[in-house]
Design brief:
- This protein has one domain: MFS general substrate transporter like domains (Growth Hormone, Chain: A, Up-down Bundle).
- The protein has 402 residues and is mostly helical.
- It has helices at residues 3-25, 31-38, 42-70, 73-90, 96-123, 130-159, 161-166, 174-181, 186-191, 196-204, 207-228, 231-239, 243-271, 273-293, 297-315, 318-325, 334-346, 349-360, 362-382, 396-401.
- Helix 3 (42-70) runs antiparallel to helix 4 and helix 5 packs antiparallel against helix 17 (334-346).
């Protein structure tokens, strides 16, 4: 694979995940605004985040199947156009029911993008660069959150909440880039399946591995969504931080997330995928006390920065780890399906933390939940496995020698 070609593939996957994440996280900054707009309690708006997460596995199955059966490029372009249209329509919602349905439909698009984009990107990446490119690819999630925070500080006050969603239609232009610059995956050409039956037989032969990945991804989702989704609300309610300062904290923490994803992704090339993830989790748990109980804006912002270096440091390894563990003939389906299976199981994260908030207070709800998650993840990784450096197709061996 030519370096320029692989760069286009990685960039397409990165941009798709960035824009997808932006479209998801705009809601996080609009909880109060949308509750007032639709005349519902804030918890109803929080439930739309859960609806998005619940429908993501459907997208993983649909677009993952299409990617393994017909190639990566076409399904990825269709996916980008689909979630862009749904995001545009979300901005035209006039009732809570309309908005809820559209956010559920958006979940289908969000669920399909990650698996297809990651397989297309990593199958075309040189093996010696897989770790750092995996980190760059996954950092698109944090950058999407960061852009949403910037939009909350700039677009929301001047243009209103609807424009936050209308801007989400711009990713449709990415389909043009994929169409003109990104070639089809050679790994897919070599391992393509002839029928849906053959595809699912391939997956069936790896049930044990899929279940492990599903459990791993459930706790990874608890880690990510449990430290991000309600953080703006937590900072305002628990610590009395004004909205502009909250957006600044979110921007800073996502800078830390991007740095962590790239650093730990590169580290995984040297010490392996699991040990690098464990190191990132150790950094995360060290930041929990001040992140949840800090007494000043500076302490809270610094802790959020460090915590997300660890959280997204671990996440930066996930794209390459899941793709290396997946069977060659189902790499479009299985990593994305395991990923979204974790999303499905972890979809009540926000409601669980909200419930704990009522029982033990907001700070302990956030901290206690994540301590349990990090300890559980560490145990899963210690007893897990990896296929560090697995060749995706026959030509991949030659790429490694370049």
């Amino acid at each position: 694979m030519q370096p320029r070609t692989s760069r286009h593939a990685v960039l397409a996957g990165f941009l798709g995940w960035t824009l997808d994440a932006f479209d998801f996280f705009v809601v996080v900054f609009l909880l109060d605004v949308l509750a007032k707009e639709f005349g519902v309690p804030k918890k109803h708006v929080i439930a739309t985040l859960t609806a998005t997460l619940l429908f993501r596995p459907l997208g993983a199955i649909l677009f993952g199947y299409l990617a393994d059966r017909f190639g990566r490029r076409g399904p990825l372009m269709a996916n980008v156009i689909y979630f862009s249209i749904i995001e545009l329509l979300s901005g035209f919602s006039t009732t809570y029911t309309q908005f809820l349905v559209l956010r559920a439909l958006f979940g289908i698009g969000m669920g399909g993008e990650w698996g297809v984009g990651a397989s297309l990107a990593l199958e075309q990446a040189p093996r010696k660069w897989r770790g750092v490119l995996s980190g760059i690819l996954q950092s698109g999630y944090s950058i999407g959150y960061l852009i949403a925070a910037i939009a909350a500080r700039t677009v929301l006050p001047s243009l209103g909440w609807r424009w936050m969603f209308w801007l989400g239609a711009l990713p449709a232009l990415l389909a043009l880039y994929i169409r003109t610059k990104v070639p089809e995956s050679e790994a897919w050409r070599e391992h393509r399946v002839g029928s849906i039956g053959a595809l699912f037989r391939s997956v069936k032969g790896h049930v044990g591995g899929f279940l492990y990945l599903g459990v791993l991804m459930t706790f990874m989702m608890f880690l990510s969504h449990g430290t991000q989704d309600l953080l703006p609300d937590f900072l305002r309610v628990q610590h009395g931080i004004p909205k502009p300062a909250v957006a600044t904290v979110v921007i800073l923490m996502n800078v830390g997330a991007v740095i962590g994803a790239i650093l730990f992704g590169q580290l995984s090339q040297k010490i392996g995928r699991r040990y690098s993830m464990i190191a990132a989790l150790a950094l995360s748990i060290a930041a929990i006390p001040t992140w949840a109980f800090g007494g000043s804006l500076l302490v809270l912002a610094t802790s959020a920065f460090v915590l997300q270096m660890g959280v997204q440091g671990a996440w930066g390894i996930i794209p390459v780890h899941l793709n290396e563990l997946a069977p060659d003939s189902a790499r479009g389906l299985m990593p994305g399906l395991a990923y979204q299976f974790g999303v499905l199981c972890a979809s009540p994260t926000n409601q669980l933390q909200d419930l704990l908030h009522d029982r033990v207070g907001y700070s302990w709800a956030m901290a206690g939940f994540e301590i349990v998650v990090i300890v559980s993840l560490t145990i899963l990784l210690i007893f897990g496995r990896e296929r560090h450096g697995h060749a995706f197709y026959s030509g991949d061996v030659l790429v490694e020698k370049d």
